[in-house]
Specification:
Blueprint (H helix, E strand, L loop, with lengths): L2 H11 L15 H17 L4 H6 L8 H6 L18 H14 L1 H21 L2 H13 L4 E4 L15 E4 L3 E12 L6 E7 L5 E7 L5 E2 L14 E12 L11 H35 L1 E2 L2 E2 L4 H29 L5 H25 L11 H11 L6 H13 L6
Parallel strand pairs: 1-4
Antiparallel strand pairs: 2-3, 3-7, 4-5, 6-7, 8-9
Bound molecules: 3-thiaglutaryl-CoA and flavin-adenine dinucleotide (FAD).
Length: 401
């Protein structure tokens, strides 16, 4: 079979995944309908091409209008501001569908929804919401979120980016790094300290003098997602661009709650794609006269994959229920992000082994998912930082410092 035919054969069946505990029964009819439309659209427009985009280190920004039209950007924002007014569980379902195709695509959508639209929606003025949210919901404007700095990743409270009050505007200086969407974003939500050292969110717009967004190249991970820096050299930011309703580190951390929630659901999508690929291959590939899926060592891998996916699905579903009831804590979100990304990366690595040499090729999605998940396990709080969040929660003692 040619490479292209194999790839298309894989794409054609990639969405028949197992649902071992009938978790689908826990979803509403509306959630399943939305999932089908997102799945069908991605199956046509993204899945057949994603390997090539990743190989070419190409971010498929041409998908943005279609993604916006289907409600993939900030679906939890109310209809009044261009969103769909959906609950968080539905947001999770959508993130899972996108990440089934690629974590980089999910990144593009979750940054837009949780890290750009959410802070404007939750902390913005009425004028900011009216100006930015409808255009962000359709994807006419794309955004990025600048918290991480060259010297401050896990510890954002140490950030050096700062602004001074110049009477009729703020003057912003500093730099952010590792910023998803930055190379093409029209809008950046930038976290910076004022003269008193208090953290505030500023909406910085492309075209403001002194604001540049150099791209970061040479990535082995999230190659279909654009990552860059944000550099501020005496940028004059209008006063009406400061997010007025929340300040302090809790403001960006509140956005991370929303994004980490989406990742907890999303990573399961990547894991399902890997599991299904390995399961299918194990039944088709024959060695020593029998399908490799008939050997206990391969069955152990597959049985453990489906067990971990099932646990992850239930964790995400219950977290969704808590979030929709307004009861999900930062610590619960943290546990789900950590667990589900960890099981996804382990499943991607194990699934890659099930395919032997074929597993390293772009004919199958396994190496791409595994490499992508190396970023996902680091961004939005590293695996170890989330462990420390749980540790602090159960002991009451911080081990961060
Ligand atoms: P800590 O003392 O714990 O908290 C500082 C203040 O914030 C409050 N707070 C929250 N408020 C609202 N929502 C939350 N979730 C909150 N969590 C904490 C807290 O009560 C406190 O308030 P106050 O009034 O007492 O001052 O802060 P800390 O400096 O000890 O740091 C804690 C730590 C390490 C857990 C936190 O800094 C952290 O989470 N670090 C990880 C950094 C991180 O996740 N960065 C992500 C950058 S964005 C990104 O990666 C996008 S990837 C994009 C993609 O998806 O493609
Ligand atoms: P560091 O904080 O330097 O950590 C290095 C290691 O030390 C880690 O293993 C960490 O767990 C460990 N460590 C740190 N502190 C402790 C401690 N107290 N105890 C024990 N171990 C510790 N950021 C944004 O703001 N916006 C974005 O859009 C964004 N997108 C990203 C996209 C990609 C592809 C990547 C890779 C990153 C992105 N990030 C973004 C940045 C990401 O959030 C950071 O990389 C992450 O928070 C970790 O920071 P760091 O890389 O500086 O690692």
């Amino acid at each position: 079979m040619s490479t292209t035919t194999q790839q298309n054969a894989h794409v054609a069946h990639r969405y028949e995944h197992s649902d071992y505990y009938l978790v689908d029964d826990l979803l509403t009819e509306e959630q399943k309908l939305i999932r089908s439309s997102v799945r069908d659209w991605l199956n046509i427009h993204a899945a057949p091409h994603i390997n090539q985009w990743a190989q070419d280190n190409h971010c498929p920004t041409h998908l943005i209008p279609g993604m916006g039209e289907l409600g993939m950007f900030g679906p939890f924002v109310s209809e009044e501001y261009g969103g769909m007014g959906l609950d968080y569980s539905t947001y999770g379902v959508i993130m899972q569908e996108i990440e089934r195709v690629d974590s980089g695509l999910r990144s593009m959508a979750s940054v837009q929804g949780s890290l750009v639209m959410y802070p404007i929606y939750a902390y913005g003025s009425e004028a900011q919401k009216k100006k930015f949210l409808p255009k962000l919901a359709t994807g006419e404007w794309m955004g990025c979120f600048g918290l991480t700095e060259p010297n401050h990743g896990s510890n954002p409270s140490g950030m050096e980016t700062h602004f001074t009050d110049e009477g009729d505007h703020y003057l912003l200086n500093g730099a952010k790094t590792w910023i998803s969407n930055s190379p093409f974003a029209q809008v950046a939500i930038v976290w910076a300290k004022n003269e008193e050292g208090r953290i505030h969110g500023l909406i910085v717009e492309r075209g403001m003098e002194g604001f540049t967004t150099p791209e970061i190249h040479n990535k082995w991970s999230l190659r279909a997602s654009a990552t860059g820096e944000l550099v501020f050299d005496n940028v004059k930011v209008p006063k009406e661009n400061l997010l007025p309703k929340k300040s302090g580190l809790g403001a960006p951390l509140g956005c991370l709650d929303s994004a980490r929630f989406g990742i907890a659901w999303g990573a399961i999508g990547a894991a399902m794609d890997c599991y299904y690929t390995a399961l299918t291959y194990s039944k088709e590939r024959t060695q020593f006269g029998k399908p490799i899926g008939s050997y206990q060592l391969q069955q152990k891998k597959l049985a453990e994959m489906v067990t971990e996916i099932t646990k992850g699905q239930l964790l995400a579903w219950r977290l969704g229920q808590l979030k929709d009831q307004g009861k999900a804590t930062t610590q619960q979100i943290s546990m789900a992000k950590r667990n589900n990304v960890n099981i996804a990366i382990n499943i991607a690595r194990e699934a890659r082994q099930v395919l032997g040499g074929m597993g390293i090729t772009g004919d199958y999605p396994l190496m791409r998912h595994a490499m992508n998940l190396e970023s996902v396990i680091t961004y939005e709080g590293t695996h170890d930082i989330h462990l420390l969040i749980t540790g602090m929660d159960v002991t009451g003692i911080s081990a961060f410092r």
